[in-house]
Amino acid sequence: MMNCREILFNPGFEITPTFSPMGFEYGKDVFGPEVENRMLNDIRKSLMDPICEGPEIVYSIAMDVGKKEHKVLLERMHLLYGVVTYAAGRLGDEPIRSQGHIHKISAFSNWSTPEVYEIWSGEAIIYMQEYAEDNPGRCFAVYAKAGEVVVVPPYWAHATISANPECPLTFGAWCDRDYGFVYEGVRKHGGIAWFPFFNADNKIEWKANTKYQPSELVCKFPNDYAVLGIKPGKSIYEIFEEEPDTFSYVPSPQLKSDVWKNFIP
């Protein structure tokens, strides 16, 4: 039987998720910080059932990891790599997930910045909606497995969901170094516009959040992101290592302003 706690996709540098306690072990040539833990009590107000039971630590996050030889280059490019591990289990009838946020306006670009996700193990759904206003605009739930990439465009509210309660979810992401999370819009509406939950067959279904105007949810698989430099089968860190400028649009999203118009993830 496959050990679902093992990384199933090689991210391109030496890093191992740990689960007791949750976090990461870095290889000798890899830098990284102590993890920050996100607790269940931190996200309750954004859940369909705020009084549900679940893991006390929902996920552990380490922002700014990579190969030591790239540290200066990453700082100069204003680019940052973050890694996250989600606990196995569920939050009542809901999957383990983040509460949802928008990226703050970066002082570097004066844009809310995009994010490039790469799934390492487990099963993910990257949920996103155009706005955290009463009208959420277009809403997508992008289902991704190990080795797949999902791109969240600038200004969109988004949340990461673990689709398999039996397995921890681990992923990495390219972010702007001037990252910051804006929660107000999502919290004002008691969560994202569509709540995921497990049905009687342990499959994820979606329920509309009535605090938003009616919207349509499109469930899909990841798009072809060749226009954003994504190469199937190659990790996003390896792509950076070979061509560092590939992800310059993360801290400087204006470089791909034409791509973000009518973007389909």
Plain-language structure description:
The chain has 265 residues and is mainly β. It contains 5 helices and 20 strands. The protein has helices at 40-43, 71-77, 184-188, 236-242, 257-260, and strands at residues 15-19, 22-26, 30-31, 36-39, 57-63, 66-67, 79-86, 90-91, 94-95, 102-103, 115-121, 123-129, 139-145, 149-152, 157-162, 169-176, 181-182, 194-198, 204-208, 217-220. Strands 4-5-7-16-11-14 form a 6-stranded antiparallel beta sheet. A 4-stranded mixed beta sheet has the order 15-12-13-20, with no helix packed on it. The longest helix has 7 residues, at 71-77. The radius of gyration is 17 Å and the shape is globular. It starts with 14 loop residues before the first strand and ends in a 5-residue tail after the last helix.
> What's the total helix number?
5
Main beta sheet: strand number and arrangement?
6 strands, antiparallel
CATH fold-type name = Jelly Rolls
CATH superfamily: Jelly Rolls
CATH class: Mainly Beta
| Uncertain regions spanning at least 5 consecutive residues | none
Which CATH architecture would you pick?
Answer: Sandwich
How many separate domains make up the residues? 1
N to C succession of SSEs? EEEEHEEHEEEEEEEEEEEHEEEHH
Average pLDDT taken over every residue: 95
Q: What proportion of the residues form beta strands (DSSP E)?
A: 35-45%
Radius of gyration: 17 Å
Task: Compute the number of strand runs.
Answer: 20
Q: What global shape is seen?
A: globular
State the strand order across the main sheet. 4-5-7-16-11-14
Which structural class should the secondary elements be placed in? mainly beta
Query: Helix share of residues?
Result: 10-25%
The CA-CA distance between the termini, in Å, is: 33 Å
